[in-house]
Amino acid sequence: MSDTPHIMVVEARFHEDIVEELARGAVAELERNGATCLRVPVPGCLEIPAAIAFAVRSMDFFTARKRFDGYVALGCVIRGETTQYDMVCTESARGLQTLAMRYALAIGNGILTVENREQAWGRAATGGRNKGGFAARACLDMIELKRQFRLYPR
């Protein structure tokens, strides 16, 4: 196992500008900590858990090992006029938690659930709350915890 974590950053591109800012924060945090990453776009937040599940079930052809040490989920759900908001928030979070528990995955959840774009930008901005960076840090912390328990990620 390499000491350099390799992370899959899954980006729901529905609110592309906000998610791009989240990704900037996440990638900067990963690079600052010596990790490498692969950015994978998906259409929306509901597709994030499926993308992670696909990666978990895939193996590197040459090494027969898992491809990623951890996962960072990035997206943004802004409340609208329908109940779609509640369903997307609940099901994307449930999907990530189910994956983390079932497969002992290190997942940093950076899916914003907000009332409006102003709140989203306040949380996404790398000069603000930097939730993308926070999600990446959470992922790295969980990888370290797995190592302490000898649950090697790959």
UniProtKB/TrEMBL annotation:
Q: In which pathway does it act?
A: Cofactor biosynthesis; riboflavin biosynthesis; riboflavin from 2-hydroxy-3-oxobutyl phosphate and 5-amino-6-(D-ribitylamino)uracil: step 1/2
> What reaction does this catalyse?
(2S)-2-hydroxy-3-oxobutyl phosphate + 5-amino-6-(D-ribitylamino)uracil = 6,7-dimethyl-8-(1-D-ribityl)lumazine + phosphate + 2 H2O + H(+)
Q: Which amino acid positions bind 5-amino-6-(D-ribitylamino)uracil, per UniProt? A: 14, 45-47, 76-78, 109
Give the highest taxon in the source lineage. Bacteria
Q: Which Pfam families match?
A: DMRL_synthase (PF00885)
State if GTP-binding is listed as a keyword.
Answer: no
Q: MF terms per GO, please?
A: 6,7-dimethyl-8-ribityllumazine synthase activity
Keyword list (alphabetical) reads: Riboflavin biosynthesis, Transferase
Binding residues for (2S)-2-hydroxy-3-oxobutyl phosphate, per the UniProt record?
81-82, 123
Enzyme Commission no: 2.5.1.78
Please list the GO biological process terms of this entry. riboflavin biosynthetic process
One Gene Ontology cellular component term attached to this UniProt record is: riboflavin synthase complex
**What is the protein's known function?**
Catalyzes the formation of 6,7-dimethyl-8-ribityllumazine by condensation of 5-amino-6-(D-ribitylamino)uracil with 3,4-dihydroxy-2-butanone 4-phosphate. This is the penultimate step in the biosynthesis of riboflavin.
Q: Which family does it belong to?
A: Belongs to the DMRL synthase family.
Identification of the protein by name: 6,7-dimethyl-8-ribityllumazine synthase
Species the sequence originates in: Azospirillum thermophilum
The primary gene name is: ribH
